[in-house]
Amino acid sequence: MISYEAILKKMEEKAGEARLQKDERKIRETVEAIKTLCELILEDKKGEIPSGTAPGGERPVQTTVYHQEKLETDDGANGDSLLDF
After folding, report:
1. Does residue 36 lie in a domain region?
2. pLDDT tens digits for 36-61?
3. In which domain, by residue range, is 37 found?
4. How far, in Å, CA of 45 to CA of 35, rounded?
5. Which end of the chain has fewer surrounding CB within 10 Å, N or C?
6. Which is nearest to 16 in space by CA: 2, 4, 5, 27?
7. Is 82 part of a structural domain of the chain?
């Protein structure tokens, strides 16, 4: 769980970064990050936010499937190396 205090500390860090920026685009990006942190606090109902949860819903589950079948080619290559022609 992430506490309000941790989020507020991060907001202060980002505000400091924004003050030091000269590029308007970088300032806007930093302020957008602060806005997102504000939304986290405002959307929270209990005072603490689960650390793995994004605002607006659950995180999608990613699954990776590995197939270990050898690729059969019929192109006349003479070896398994990428450098074989």
Report:
1. yes
2. 999 999 987 655 555 555 444 445 55
3. 2-49
4. 18
5. C
6. 27
7. no
